[in-house]
Amino acid sequence: MSTTPITCAMPEAYTLVEESELRQRAWTARRALGDRAVILGHHYQKDEVMEFADITGDSYLLAQRGAAATAAELIVFLGVYFMAESADVLAAPHQRVVLPDLGAGCHLAECADIFTVRDAWAQLTQALPGKRIIPLTYMNSGADLKAFVGEHGGAVCTSGNAQRAFRWAFSEGDAVFFFPDEHLGRNTGVQIGLEADAGRVWNPRLAELGGIAPNELAETPLILWKGFCNVHTAFTTAQVADARAQDPATIVIVHPECPRDVVAAADEDGSTEFIIRRCQELPEGSRIVIGTDWNLVNRLAHRHPDKHIFCLNEHICPCVTMNRITLPKLTWCLESLAAGEIVNTVKVEDEMARWARVALDRMLALA
Ligand code: SF4
């Protein structure tokens, strides 16, 4: 996490209240807040809190929509820490961003930190004199990493616009340094025409050039940070084969944070918004097997009873950090806000926010 959380722990008493009473109290507090608050819900959140979301979407859309809701001085984010930071970066000065559990991080975002990225950058620029390297960070990263790419001529990308961002970066420089998701980086490289093995993986645990041989580093167009999402890397090609064995007409759709071989084996791949859209578009009776977080797949299955929608790994655990946002924590949060106590705010330092915004604006300019 790149900013200092202002902590305020939920009193234990909330864990002892019956669910029906919690829902009632949460709705009472929500109504009392009225237009002063907007609640943003990421697609991977649990149903027990999603019913309170005014707007649902992926992380960037939510950050934008929160900022656009200017009547709301409070943005309650049902998601993880880097999302709340992005919402704060884009928020108007009068808006405060609140995360019901400040411990809701993201495994992938935490695979890269500013200190090891700065060290890697220093090594890269020294090892590749005269080469222009463009740093790109995935949306799933801390505000400090977004600020880093903003300061160094790079941009942010989402899983929905990664191809566009990569093409832009290659038009600007000789090589792309992408963090923190190795798999999204490799999959995007293939989608824009690179060989699957064209990239080299920078392992921040290895002191010398991230473990890349100097001659390979000089030749590669793509340097990929060794980071991964523990949910999306739990999908395998064996599961894809199994889904097809059960019904050859199955359409397998996976998220591009999945490993390359899984994406290659699937019928389609794309962002959460893409997956949601495909579930709407595919005809009645379709059997759709999806490789992404279980909460979203389960919701899609209920939303489209005319189709047969399953998770690629039926035994997968939902994202544990997303699931830290629970009904008791949301109830505590809303009741505190309604009583005038602003708890669990996420605030990005001004200078960091300024540069992070530069990187986000560069992404927007690519549209
Ligand atoms: S699903 Fe993966 S990328 Fe998304 S919040 Fe969880 S750990 Fe992070």
Write the layout of secondary structure elements.
Blueprint: H1 19-33, E1 37-42, H2 47-50, E2 55-57, H3 59-68, E3 74-78, H4 81-90, E4 96-98, H5 114-127, E5 133-138, H6 143-151, E6 155-157, H7 162-172, E7 175-179, H8 182-191, E8 200-202, H9 214-219, E9 222-225, H10 237-246, E10 251-254, H11 260-265, E11 268-269, H12 272-281, E12 287-291, H13 294-303, E13 308-311, H14 327-338, H15 350-365
Parallel strand pairs: 1-2, 1-3, 3-4, 5-6, 5-7, 7-9, 8-9, 10-11, 10-12, 12-13
The helix content is 40-55%
Summing up helix and strand content along with how strands pair, one would put the structural category as alpha/beta
Count of individual domains: 3
Give the low-confidence spans: none
What topology, given as strand order, has the largest sheet? 6-5-7-9-8
Overall strand count: 13
Ligand names: iron/sulfur cluster
The whole-angstrom Rg is 21 Å
What is the distance, rounded to the nearest whole angstrom, between the alpha carbons of the first and last residues? 28 Å
What CATH calls the topology of the largest domain is Rossmann fold
Specify the CATH homologous superfamily of the largest domain.
NadA-like
| CATH architecture classification of the largest domain | 3-Layer(aba) Sandwich
Portion in beta strands: 5-15%
Separate helix tally: 15
Query: How would you spell out the order of helices and strands?
Result: HEHEHEHEHEHEHEHEHEHEHEHEHEHH
What composes the largest sheet? 5 strands, parallel
